[in-house]
Fold:
Amino acid sequence: MELLEKLRILADSAKYDVACTSSGSERQGQPGKIGNTVNAGLCHTFTADGRCVSLLKVLLTNICAYDCKYCVNRRSNDLPRAAFTPRELARLTIEFYRRNYIEGLFLSSAVLKNPDYTMEQMIHALELLRGEYGFNGYIHAKTIPGADPALVQRLGLLADRLSVNIELPSETSLNLLCPDKGRKAIFRPMGQIARTAQENRQELQLYRGAPKFAPAGQSTQMIVGATPESDYQILNLTQELYKKYQLKRVFFSAYIPVVEDSRLPAADTKPPLLREHRLYQADWLLRYYDFQAEEILDRENPNFNPYLDPKCNWAVNHYHLFPVDVNKAPFEMLLRVPGIGPKSARRIRTARRQQTLDWEGLRRLGVVLKRAQYFITCKGYAGPHSPRREMVVRSLLDPKAFGYGSYQTSLFEDPSGLLGAAPQVQQLAEEGMAPALAAKTVEEEAVKCLAEKL
Structure:
């Protein structure tokens, strides 16, 4: 098989791994410009300083000995199969790099023969890249669950980042859909990578010339929507993974029906993309906003509000804590105000040491006032509708009160939402006469409501 045909097959087989952002772009070289790009296998990742770099995202092989029911590459699925030799993969990567197509490699693989054999092939390819070809660029490698710990150690000395896909949120689902995998096979290398990375950091403090083990840390991926676990269960597992294994990132992948199986959602089921989006928003709250999983969801409310992002939903349900004075509130409370992120919270903390902040000052600091105005006060200004603010916010944020149906928007996600439709609608909401919105847009129904009421 031609090398380009192998690349087409194995890049396509890697597209369901979401530990980076696929580009899917193709541009030919142009006079006066440097480099070009092809859509087969190229993806983007971001460095710590914010730069976006292109990676070759590909599988070593899609020939798999396992039969995971949700996986497009499972052994019982009928699709074109291919495999790179370690030399082919190393040469392909370095030639792409020399042509300025890519800046690094994202390497995963199906299980060829067994986990140990697959890992040996991956390690051989990376040894050729690092040694013979002198490649010093970024490499993200997927660890194969069940492989020998010595192979995990060797792979970590060659790659910048390692990842072990947890795949499904519970052991029950894993046993049902992945009979060839087990919980221990997944969590054992996770624990090994976390311990070895910590030991390596201590070693590097004593001897700077020591070899680095996975200096960019480790990550994992979970499939969402293939099994019945709630958002509450997924979020709690995510929090435990961060605490126990010091993961850099947990990625969520909305399940896309690619194979027929009675244990999986029907093939015509739409991927739960909104649910994936909410999980990423909640993950951000865990990592950067000092939230705990049990604050975002609980057993009584185990799933996300489809109309409100998790932070706004928390703020509305804890409105007794608001409004807060931005000139006096502690930093931890500023982080919980919708419309104030970590960067703007730090700016507020610094600026208020020198002056008393007003509305315009907050705007200049980057606060999103169309969200924050209902939860803050500053320099004597109590925000819109201060006497009955809580009722206004709750009525406007409750989609059931307005009959939004499938119209997934809110005051916080749509700047031209109900509050922006007409001042009279605000008054009607304050008086408890929330209209039943059934028109295509909020604005159209607002006009209709005003015509009936006035």
